[in-house]
Queue: 2 jobs
Job 1
Amino acid sequence: MNIENYISSGIIEAYVLDQLTEQERHEVQQMAEQHQEVRIAIIEAEDTLIAFAQKGSITPPVSSKNKLFQDLGIEIQQPPVEEKKEVEESLKANTSTSEIRPAVKERSLYQYISAAASIIAILGIVLSFYYRGQWLETEDRLFSLISQNETLAQQYNIVKNQADQYASNLDILRQPGIENVLMDGLDISPDAEAVVHWNKNTNEVYLNAKKMPYNEDAYQYQLWAIVDGKPVDMGVFDVSGDMTGLLKMKSINKPSAFAVTLEPRGGSANPTMDQMYVIGQI
Amino acid sequence: MAKKPSALEYLYDNYSAALFGVIIRIVKSEEVAQEVLHDIFMKVWNNFSAYDAGKGRLYTWLVNISRNASIDKIRSKEIKKTLKTDLVSDNVHTIDYANSHTLSTDGIGLEKVLDQLPEELRFVIDQMYFKGYTQTEIAEEFNIPLGTVKTRTRTAMRELRALLL
């Protein structure tokens, strides 16, 4: 599957807007695990959505906050913005009335104190903005670390599953009598490739289809063996997700070649020749 | 995140304005928007474990549950009918609303950004983001090929990204 086409198909946006079915979500997550481009596209779309919501911010009335905290039985720790302003204004009012006081000495003392207080207050406000910025940045980094951690855990699981699959593949390939038949891609899909492991002693057939393109739901791949010049059905299979494991197909005696075609779901009685993806002679 | 009372305050102070902006543009009534916002924070607080970091960032999760709750609200209230007959004047109403009721001037900025999008892209964003239609539903409802809806979604998000970031 072409990653650029996949990303520009609009599915990433639908994913970020939470408009996919559980299965489709899962597919996008799998693609994201396998392709960094998809991960980046998701993060970019999320950033856009966040910036979009941020840009449209409308502060709800203070009464909303009060009601919520009351209903949850939680005390508000920071006074709401309005109250802060009132406090500041009453502070200002206090300092201005003090200036009217007549005594010269007292006035200058009050002036010093109020000047000092203003400077401290301004410094405090500047610092609080600075720390708030830093705090938000830290919070963002924390969330991105949590999601990275999650991704790593998922990747670990994938690698572990693959290792288990490889071990069981090795057991199959070590059996005596195994012949490996490489099937190369045809014009329809030159990059495709698949390998049949045919056991000439037991006639068992295993298929490695890791390098086949994903098929759509309406279709399925079908493996054929050529025996005495005629195609014999060897079973259908899907290519999706991780294809490390070998597929057990039908057994066959004395094949001369193997081929894979794409057929309507469920398979066909005869191969559709112009939908042949790979073929290989023994 | 530990469920300390101050965590709720942190969540509320940091996200309520963005979420309220999302909700009010969908439900188009300050009263209903307050109700939806309240319900969302109650749910998030009582059931924080519903958040799964693997499914996306906290912020996008909150935005999406706000959108979904708001869309459910208008659909359940049959406001939908009247909205459909008069899409244009409703949009105008939203903008007026933002102008007259907003506490921060930021709220109007979003409409200005949206106005910069070509009509067909803005339409897709309206239907998906504010009305909650899926790409398939838009294609069927408005007789646009699904492929076109999908590319427009992609283009719209890229243009928004360029305008916003």
Note: Chain B touches chain A through 61 residues (CB under 8 Å).
Job 2
Amino acid sequence: MIEVSHLCKSFNGVQILSDVSAIFEEGKINFTIGKSGSGKTVLLKSIIGLHEIDSGNIYFHDRNFTTMTINQRKEIRKEIGMVFQGSALFDSSTLEENVMFPLKMFSDLSYDECRERANFCLQRVDVVGKNHLFPSEISGGMQKRVAIARAIALNPKYLFCDEPNSGLDPQTSILIDNLIKEIVREYNMTTIINTHDMNSVMEIADKIIFIHEGKLWWQGDKESIWTTDNPEVNRFIFASELTKKIRVLYEK
Amino acid sequence: MGRVFTKPDDAKVFRENVWKEIILIGYYSIVIVLIISTFIGAVITLQTAYNMTNPIYPDYIIGLGTRDSVILEFSSTIVGLVLAGKVGSSIASNIGTMQVTQQIDALETMGVNSANFLILPKIVAAVITFPFLGILSMITGIAGGWLAGMMSGEVPSAQYVYGLQYAFIPYYIVYSLIKICTFGIIISSVASYYGYYTRGGALEVGKASTTAVVNSSLIILVFNLLLTALLL
């Protein structure tokens, strides 16, 4: 479980997050949604410690991340897997080396064992026979899958994904969503996903958090989001004609 | 800076990274150093020869002049400036690209000290390889001068070789190696700094690369003056 309590973050005097409190339950897929610039990515990066927060607390299973020393945070980070928006695979390393990287750095496995584990993770995300290719030689969808393989290499307790479907076609997006869902269920990871993609939310979300102007505006599940009377949430979800029609059908 | 000079997370991975950087920084710079040194050595010899037409000057002075120019200034400062362009831009654009594509964030998320992981191997590799490049430059610069003198008929071989040995001060080589070693630290750290603090996109990576080359070249010139005043 991850708990965020009264989290505030500003950059150069501009308040990005104000008093955000939320609980992300263990083994659940938690979605953070909101407009571009609403503070979703800052929230995610604050939780994993890429941004130092101004005030508030972040707990990973009752361990207060905010008050930890650098070395204590390092230990927590070994329990974290992160899939970045642009995949963030290391350009100069092959796909296999990318997945092997956290294993080589933070496990006691031998080289062969690291390779075996990396191959297992690559197979798990359906990337087979491409181990020696470089990230620039594969498609965006496959890069995302390799990024997921790297994120799960160390069997993390927590998985964070920043817009895992951005730049992908709808079919590939669904494949990535289902892959995340399978992996989260398999390893019982606490997962937080940032997205704009309502298809993903409807596909796999257990809990949804709506961030607006740096504040937690609404939270609930994918059933209650259709019927909420929160105007900001409605404006965000029902921005397209398609979702408006779905709502009409849903209400019938 | 404090984060760069800490104990690496994994000694084996650090050694592997240093070795990779030795190849990238040192090995891939050998050809450019050889070509530039040969031609500059040849030009120094010919220019000295053309300006020493008065019979009062013995021919061996051309060899002596080439030797001292190459060892004292060329193989350290000029090669340092050339490497600031080649190695400096490569380091800044490499780290800058990693920054804007979130690869550095990925390292940090995994718990890796990214500054130490990326920058320290480059500084260590530069300190190891730059003196070798300097020695290589001295040898090929002097050899280039000898070839040019021979082929043009301006300096007899025996006179050139005598000039190389005449009033030779071995400390000049030490002085030159100290300088190029210092320039290696300057180039790798300044370029890494600009790369690491790149924010934005591809345009900013290009800007960081240019700024790294310009600033490391300026710092090299200032340090060249300081080290000359201190060491000679």
Note: Residues 92-150 of chain A form one domain.
